[in-house]
Amino acid sequence: MPPLHIGLLGAGGIARAHLPGWLALGARVSVHTVDGSAEKLTAEYAGRGHDVRIADGLDDLLDTVTAVDICTPTPTHKELALAAFAAARHVVCEKPLALTAHDAEEIAAAAEAAGVRLHPAHVVRYFPAYAAMRDSVVRGDLGALAVLRFTRGGARPRWAPWFGDPAQSGGVLMDLMVHDIDIARWIAGDVVRVHARTRGVEHATGTPPDVVTATAVLTHASGAVSHIGGLWGLPDQQFRTTFRIAGADGLLHHDSTAVPGFRITAQGVRPANEGIPSSPLTESPYLAELREFAASWQPGGPAPRVSARDGVEAVRIAEAATESSRTGRVIEIERTEQTERTEPTEEAAR
User: Fold this and answer.
1) Do 129 and 119 belong together in one domain?
2) pLDDT per position as a tens digit, 36-68
3) How far is the C-alpha of 327 from the C-alpha of 12, rounded, in Å?
């Protein structure tokens, strides 16, 4: 693989999860932020002998890098991705791609028009328990899928104020539960109907953050049904994920507190509640996804397990869930010519 030069946009929690992965792949990394936070991050890693520097500006970064890794707040994703595509650069973009399916479609279309790759960073597909569960489904171990249940929750993120504003983060359904929405679609195929509910105040200026819970019920085109629960809890809330996949021939379940397939990690000193789930059992899932993305840039390279369309559809479903929660209505998701089937098959397996 030719030497990589990565443009890392952002220096917050998720950027700190991505940066070690790029360095493990031998990449040179240029960091760009608009708030000066790049200085602290680059100093930490450059001081350890890594090839990490501050970019002179976004234009300078785009002129020289192999690919751009967008680790900035969600409302900035579209503008930054379009700028990268205009410079014919591959893009890795943190989830969700955008706050609306319309914007996510525009991002994906721009990548296709530029002839470059768009990689939605749906890292949960690379966590060992979820990857093993997908493999089991693909092999047919469970038979036809019937009911899928997922939960994900922890302390409400407080290290950046934009998380608490649903106008910027999309709230718990879009920002947190989009992980399991993506996994449900990866496992059981396209979603045609969504019904969701949210409890708690997602944003209240001048008052302490409230506990927020949400549930979403997804009906898949196959007839399978997924129940997804999300929680932004109190500061001492333990991070926990679960899944329970029931099919005609069997049941597969996982609880991260019973089988700890992850740990909360951070590099350097972190603010309260800032931590990124990682895995102590194998290599970092962030490294695994970045290696897979980078390999796909080579001529004849394998397609990664997350496609641009996967990122768009995750936003489409989460947006429908948000609308359902707001209105109390069941939201039908229209199938389009662009919507790809993602039912598990041997050909689609990792």
Assistant:
1) no
2) 889 999 999 988 889 999 999 999 999 999 999
3) 34
Domain that holds residue 84: 5-123
Domain with residue 42: its CATH number is 3.40.50.720
The secondary structure element, H or E, covering residue 211 is none
213 three-class SS: strand
CATH code at position 131: 3.30.360.10
Alpha-carbon Rg for the chain in angstroms: 19
Residues 271 and 144 in one domain: yes
Sheet strands side by side (includes 118-121): 52-54, 28-32, 5-9, 67-70, 90-94, 118-121
d(CA 341, CA 244): 23
342 domain residue, yes or no: no
Structural domains of the chain, count: 2
Average pLDDT, integer, range 110-116: 97
Using CB atoms within 10 A of its CB, is residue 200 exposed (0-12), middle (13-18) or buried (19+)?
Answer: middle
In this prediction, residue 165 carries a pLDDT of 83
